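Lab notebook, bench 4. Still working through the backlog of constructs that have no structural model yet. Next entry is a single chain of 195 residues. Request: give me the structure tokens for it.
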Amino acid sequence: MKKIFVEEFLKQAENHTVIDVRTPSEFQKGHIPGAFNIPLFSNEERADVGTKYKQESRDTALILALEFVAPKAAAFLDELKKISPSKKILLYCWRGGMRSAGMAKLFEADGWKTATLCKGYKAYRNYIRQDFENKADLMIIGGMTGSGKTEILYSRYSTWKKSHIIKVLLSVLWGRKNSQPTNNLRMISSNHGRN
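Model written out:
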């Protein structure tokens, strides 16, 4: 398993399946566009492990975590086989720590090549926030169907092919092809300038 920084992670994400191993509620609050959620823990399990860690020790929390995860290992592999067309995957958790590393080791044992996002989703969010500080060439186009919005795009971006414009519009709305759609404005906005 190799750890990669956010810029390289996003470049590789264009050609590889991205797996978010955080809980369903963490994923719902925000995720990298195009990512699939294969949660290591349920929302409740993560809370239990965290409580055990704070009130007892890292070791007792790890034992509880393994009790939760071990029975689900085969299901994780089955889910990955359903969603990933290639044997190279990218994974992340909140801070790039134990959850993504643990899942990466499991997937590698089954023959997958993995890389994890150094410092996790938190690093991605910081990267996107910094990107918003850069001055952007922004154009808002509105109007009813048939009012000529597409023609404006063609005239503005005359070197683009029609298929590229459609790809950009769809990626902004839905993330990568075959990914889980998002209605979260933070994720849509974080996709700007990346396609």
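Notes after review: The longest helix spans residues 120-133. The first strand starts at residue 2 and ends at 4. Flag for follow-up if needed.
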